[in-house]
Amino acid sequence: MKELRFLSLILLLGFLISCSKKSDNENESQEKPVNKAGNLKGSGESANDILSNANFDKLLIEVAYVKNFKPTDATMDNFVLFLKEHSFKSTIEIMYKELSSLKEETLTLEEINELEQENRTAYNNGKTLAFYIFFTDAPSDEDDEEEDLVTLGAVYRNTSMVIYEKTIKKLSARSFFITDEDIETATLNHEFGHLFGLVNLGFENEPESPLKTKMVNPHEDSEALNHCTTNGCLMRAELSFNQTNKSSKNYTQSLHAGCRLDGVSLLNSLEKSLTSKSKAQNLGIECIRDLQANGGR
Ligand SMILES: [Zn+2]
Ligand SMILES: [Zn+2]
User: Which whole-number Å values give the CA distances from 189 to 4, 63, 150, 246, 284, in the listed order?
Assistant: First the structure.
């Protein structure tokens, strides 16, 4: 009996020590080593955390841009309005980080990911959910300029996005009516729509996750997966390159772009909707329903 008591005392002591160790580590992690785990999930997997205020009540958006490829202030104002329109976040902070030219002809997603590891400083901390958006001066390596297939932006993790700003500037120069701001806003809002989990995006290994942005009514395009069939919706299929050929099975194996936004289609749709420009930059009713069902406004 005595031995047993002694044993339980040792166990209790061991438990107390391991607990205190844990809390030491937690305190340290706020000071020195950054915990990146919350920012290494798949695209769409922080949808609920973005939309509702349950776990996070502030968004911190780090905008890294190559010199001369910074988005306009008006674009960022439009983007913040879009975030406030669909989420319950009222505190949204943008921080800028200027980078020197990459001097690259094109960039692969792997290279973009490496650059993020080098340059990103904002990670989730306490009740702040952090994002990294990279405005680059090199186009996507998957573009085919002769065929006029150019990518404007892509998401590749729950809080990571690339915007091909050089491609945006080239495209807006082709149009008399459409500005950098128009294309930047549509691109940012569309790509962020994917981080909201649109359409039916994320949790490939856990489709029934309560945190997934599920479809209230079916509206996912059968060919351009994770895009919408609603006319006029910012997430609609015609704006994206068809992704059905890219196996969605190995999402977790390698870095995977949840979306590649088609520059020419976007320009055409912005020009078509000149008389009611807002239409090209807003979500349709089915997408809004999905967001509201996952904690959105
Ligand atoms: Zn897309
Ligand atoms: Zn939609």
Answer: 63, 14, 18, 23, 13
Q: What distance in Å separates the CA atoms of residue 54 and residue 296, rounded to the nearest whole number?
A: 11
- Strands of the sheet containing 160-164, edge to edge, are 91-99, 58-66, 128-136, 160-164, 153-157
Q: What separation in angstroms does the CA of 146 have from each of 143, 149, 293?
A: 9, 8, 42
Peptide bond into 199 cis (omega under 30): yes
Q: Which of 189, 147, 146, 145 is nearest to 166 (CA)?
A: 145
**CA–CA separation, 154 and 221 (whole Å):** 18
Interval 219-274: pLDDT, tens:
999 999 999 999 989 999 888 876 544 444 334 446 778 788 899 999 998 988 87
Task: Quickly count: other Cβ atoms within 10 Å of residue 214's Cβ.
Answer: 17
Rounded CA-CA distance 264/89 in Å is 33
The Cα angle at residue 143 between residues 140 and 144, in degrees rounded to 5: 155
First to last CA, the chain: 61
| Chain segment 141-157, per-residue pLDDT in tens | 999 989 989 999 999 99
Ligand with an atom nearest the CA of residue 236: 2
Question: Can you read off the two tokens belonging to residue 124?
Answer: 């989730």
Task: Identify the burial level of 49 via C-beta atoms within 10 angstroms of its C-beta, where 0-12 means exposed, 13-18 middle and 19 or more buried.
Answer: buried
In a 10 Å sphere around its CB, with 0-12 CB exposed, 13-18 middle and 19+ buried, how is residue 34 labelled?
middle
What is the set of domains in the chain, with CATH numbers? Answer: 36-293 (3.40.390.10)
| Cα 5 to ligand 1 centroid, rounded to whole Å | 62
Kindly give the pairing relationship between strand 153-157 and strand 128-136: unpaired
* 109 alpha carbon – ligand 2 mean position (Å): 26
Structure tokens belonging to residue 249: 């099975």
Ligand nearest to the CA of 233: 2
Report the separation in Å between the CA atom of 220 and the middle of ligand 2, taken as the mean of its atom positions: 8
